[in-house]
Design goal:
Blueprint (H helix, E strand, L loop, with lengths): L51 E7 L36 E2 L7 E8 L2 E2 L9 E3 L7 E4 L2 H8 L13 E6 L4 E6 L10 E2 L9 E2 L6 E5 L9 E6 L4 E7 L17 E3 L2 E5 L4 E6 L6 E10 L13 E3 L2 E5 L4 E6 L4 E7 L9 E5 L2 E7 L1 E2 L5 E10 L5 E10 L1 E3 L2 E3 L1 E2 L5 E2 L7 E7 L7 E7 L5 E6 L9 E4 L5 E6 L4 E6 L5 E6 L9 E3 L2 E5 L1 E2 L1 E7 L1
Parallel strand pairs: 2-34
Antiparallel strand pairs: 1-17, 3-41, 4-5, 5-40, 6-7, 7-8, 8-9, 10-11, 11-12, 12-13, 14-15, 15-16, 16-17, 18-19, 19-20, 20-21, 22-23, 23-25, 24-29, 25-26, 27-28, 30-31, 31-32, 32-33, 34-35, 35-36, 36-37, 38-39, 39-41
């Protein structure tokens, strides 16, 4: 099969690099033919959108906001540069194992900084929380050379072309040598705790996009970082004059799409940044509310993208499909309750389908996790199921039940299945690992975990294309699970609390824990 090359990334901008196969090396496969997808989905709007009140605020009308190329640049590199790996948020990460794995082995533990400053929501400390995922970057050779010749990049002697980039609750970006677990650069101060997952620009131009979670030291912002300058070069405060919700946090992980960055926020706005020129600037913003709702809804989940359509859920249970060319809503779906799990898209015979799920939040102390599979073009329901869940009440605090993890779409011998965890779907404080039939939503099995889980599962395939899955729980245990049966092969208590999701590389994962540690483990 010929590998697709993204022409949209081959722009003539000082300091920017094209994204090629083989971590910066030119491809020698098949032929020199370049296949580019330039066919956009229709600029249309379905009747369901009438339930929304919305407007698009264009801040730069001189710039054409239309996307020209729809290939996914995240698929053109062995790196994992975004939450769940690609625009569809459905990456299997390419995890590989030999034979039938039987144990989990810890390779290293990296200690983050810790910030004990009090905030209105307590002390955040260090390590990582939900919705963080480490990023794995294989820097092209020309970028490595530029980093090494740029003193302001703040490299350490342990800098490597294979680097982990992870945002911490201590308010810093940390950089780790993937092989050794040592700091590869100095930590980069961002000022406020970061719960979400940054995004590395897939053009390998040194730009990273990361949002603050809560206020500790200054304004809560969406941030653009330049790794060559080792500094935040742009901040957009969450307390935007045009917001619909007075909460500035930004846990959502943005996506690069053909010269633009799409970035929903917890302030009720969806931002579209123009990153094609020498500077980053806001191009436009979508502002929306639902009829009958009390104000706007924030977005904590991350947007997934197919071609020029973007899909996301919000705190009011709204699922929106937005035309990214102009930020106009295409369709709307009511999924009943708060949605923090990221929507996942699967393309079957050229048609996109979107998987969504909710928490138990607005329903009270008990209710249902509402799950659905939707036609990505029209928003029509393919199937919908309900799984009973409860809230976990601990003194004055409560933790919503339902789905927080982003589902893993099975492949190989599990290509008909989708996997996820649910929190508090039985005994209070407990949770199960589930396999659902993708075609119908039927529960194929559920496997009890020792404690509930918010962390997203990742898959590994052996030479027989058999799927094995790693997932963590909120008491620091990592489980190795047989995908076909749900049988737990082994489990290891490693961290304090794996709210965060792992990134899979080869037969390894890197995952952060609450507290102060980032871990690398492998299965054998």
């Amino acid at each position: 099969m010929k590998k697709l090359l993204l022409l949209g990334a081959l722009v003539s901008i000082t300091g920017m690099y094209s994204c090629k196969s083989g971590a910066g090396e030119a491809s020698t496969k098949d032929s020199d033919t370049v296949v580019v997808d330039t066919v956009a989905l229709p600029d249309t709007s379905y009747a369901s959108v009438e339930q929304l009140t919305w407007n698009v605020i264009v801040t730069d009308s001189t710039v054409d906001g239309n996307l020209k190329v729809f290939n996914d640049p995240y698929l053109e590199t062995p790196s994992q540069l975004a939450f769940r790996g690609n625009q569809l948020r459905n990456a299997d990460f390419g995890g590989k194992v030999k034979g039938r794995p039987s144990k989990i082995v810890q390779d290293w533990a990296f200690e983050t900084d810790v910030d004990m400053s009090p905030t209105k929501l307590g002390v955040w400390g260090g390590g990582t929380g939900w919705t963080s995922q480490p990023l794995y970057v294989e820097w092209p050779s020309e970028v490595v050379k530029k980093f090494k010749s740029t003193p302001s990049a703040k490299l350490t002697p342990d800098f490597s072309s294979k680097e982990i980039v992870v945002a911490s609750l201590c308010g810093k970006l940390h950089f780790i040598n993937f092989e050794t677990g040592k700091a590869s650069r100095e930590g980069l101060e961002m000022g406020n705790p970061v719960k979400g997952t940054p995004t590395v620009d897939p053009r390998f131009n040194g730009l990273v996009y990361a949002g603050h979670a809560v206020q500790a030291h200054g304004d809560v912002c969406q941030n653009v970082i330049d790794l060559f300058k080792h500094d935040v070069v742009m901040r957009v405060p969450g307390l935007d004059p045009q917001l619909t919700r007075s909460w500035p946090g930004c846990d959502s992980s943005p996506l690069y799409v053909d010269g633009f960055v799409i970035w929903p926020s917890e302030n009720g706005l969806v931002y579209k940044y123009d990153v094609r020129g020498d500077s980053v600037k806001v191009h436009s913003k979508l502002r929306y509310t639902r009829a009958g709702a009390m104000g706007g809804a924030g977005v904590e989940s991350s947007i997934c993208v197919y071609k020029n359509y973007g899909y996301f859920g919000d705190n009011h249970g709204n699922i929106l499909c937005v035309n990214l060319n102009n930020l106009k809503p295409v369709w709307y779906y009511d999924n009943h309750d708060d949605i923090d799990a990221t929507t996942v898209c699967e393309v079957v015979n050229g048609k996109p389908y979107v998987y969504v799920a909710s928490e138990v939040d607005h329903q009270g102390n008990s209710g249902f996790c509402y799950m659905a599979k939707l036609d990505g073009l029209t928003g029509q329901e393919v199937w919908a199921i309900q799984v009973p869940c409860t809230k976990l009440n601990m003194g004055t605090k409560h933790f919503d039940g339902g789905m927080y993890s982003t589902p893993l779409l099975g492949g190989g011998n599990c290509s008909d299945l989708m996997f996820s965890t649910l929190a508090n779907d039985g005994v209070n404080g407990m949770g199960n690992f589930y396999a659902f039939e993708k075609r119908t939503g039927k529960i194929v099995y559920k496997t009890p975990l020792k404690h509930y889980s918010w962390s997203s599962p990742v898959g590994f395939y052996n030479e027989k294309n058999e799927l094995f899955i790693l997932v963590g729980d909120t008491y620091g245990t990592i489980y190795l699970i047989e995908g076909k049966t749900g049988r737990i092969i082994c489990d290891e208590k490693i961290g304090d609390n794996f709210e965060s999701s792992p990134v899979a590389v080869g037969n390894s994962i890197v995952v952060g824990s609450r507290g102060k540690y980032i871990y690398k483990v492998h299965i054998e």
